[in-house]
Design goal:
Length: 237
């Protein structure tokens, strides 16, 4: 069966329901706008399980997500959404792109979380934008930008607290939102939250347990992801 859409980490397929798609998590990993590529056995399975548990937890806290139901190890059913081309990044501690751009040492905590927008465009390398860019590029209205920021900060607080219970520090993360085809007036959390899209450090040792292990050639990439899943499973049980 041909996918309706294939991204770097997931594929989407149609279903009998026009408002529902099947999302398949792939084992491929990319970094630095796909300059670096690799395949990791079990990545799809681990990221699917992690996203599902986190999204269930967020739903219980009043955040609407695209999840419809679980199917199997690497597939879930999701609401069909029109993805907003605004990636929302929340940062609690300086790392990655922030440290590089601003010359701030990795690990420097922020007093208040930073919310950042980037334009979801592989050709342009996901450039940093603000509300005015989003408005003029027709990506999101000022009201929608405010809504993205509002939801992102709630998601940050809920996840920060939850990851702390898992002995993990939520350094930063990227999320994507969409307008459901069944109700385009809404904006709901879509895509995924996994070690591909978050930075997670062990609280005690500071060990990186996310995709930075791949970006920085630290080794043990899937061991890190499996450790994250194991701790989440323990915290929700
Ligand atoms: P950055 O520090 O490289 O800008 O990344 C911030 C967060 O966003 C980090 O948790 C990794 C995540 N991220 C993605 O999920 N996809 C991307 O394409 C990039 C650049 C970052």
């Amino acid at each position: 069966m041909q996918p309706l859409y294939e991204g770097k980490a997931k594929r989407l397929y149609t279903t009998d329901d026009p408002h529902v798609l099947r999302m398949e998590y792939k084992d491929e990993a990319t970094a630095f706008n796909a300059e670096k590529k690799a395949e990791f056995e079990n990545k799809g399975k681990l990221n699917k399980a992690i996203t599902l548990l986190l999204y269930k937890m967020l739903e219980e806290r009043g955040i609407e997500t695209h999840i419809v139901s679980d199917i199997d190890e690497t597939n879930i059913l999701v609401k069909k959404v029109d993805i907003l081309l605004v990636e929302v990044i929340v940062r609690n501690i300086a790392a990655g792109g922030f440290s590089k751009r601003m010359g701030v040492e990795e690990g420097t905590p922020f007093k208040t979380p930073i919310v950042e927008f980037s334009y979801k465009s592989d050709e342009l390398g996901d450039p940093l934008i603000n509300d005015d860019y989003a408005r003029e590029l027709g990506l999101a209205t000022p009201e929608e930008c405010a809504e993205l920021k509002r939801q992102a900060l709630i998601i940050n607080e809920v996840q920060k607290e939850f990851f702390a219970k898992c002995g993990l520090t939520l350094v930063d993360f990227k999320i994507e939102f969409g307008r459901p085809s069944s109700d385009p007036s809404k904006i709901i959390l879509a895509d995924e939250v996994s070690p591909d899209t978050c930075r997670l450090w062990d609280v005690k040792t500071g060990k990186k347990l996310d995709k930075d292990r791949f970006r920085q050639d630290l080794g043990g990439v899937m061991e890190g992801y499996a450790e994250v899943l194991h701790r989440i499973e323990k915290a929700v049980s």
